[in-house]
Amino acid sequence: MTKTDPFNYFHSSPEIIRLAVMMYVRFPLSLRNVEDLVQERGIDINHETVRYWWNLFGPVLAAEIRKKRVSQMRAYSNWQCHLD
After folding, report:
1. Contact call for residues 35 and 46 (beta carbons, < 8 A)
2. 71: left (phi over 0), alpha (psi -120 to 50) or beta
3. What value does the mean pLDDT take over residues 58-70?
4. DSSP string, the chain
5. pLDDT tens, 27-63?
6. Over the stretch 3-24, which tens digit does the pLDDT of each residue have?
């Protein structure tokens, strides 16, 4: 089974989508603030587009970040997991 690219059917590049979603997630910005910041970089999008991208790609990007953090934690030799 092959993995499909989630960015496959969008006209915007994956870098633009990642930038907008990560700006919304990482910093305490509203959707309109993200729209303004992205427009300052020369990319014309609507705040509703950022909301749609967040709903669609937010879980995908969060899983990638979580996976990267876990792999970094496992690099330590004394890595342990504690459950309550």
Report:
1. yes
2. alpha
3. 86
4. -PPPPTTTT-SS-HHHHHHHHHHHHHS---HHHHHHHHHHTT----HHHHHHHHHHHHHHHHHHHHHHHHHHHTTSTT------
5. 999 999 999 999 999 999 999 999 999 999 999 888 8
6. 777 777 777 888 999 999 999 9
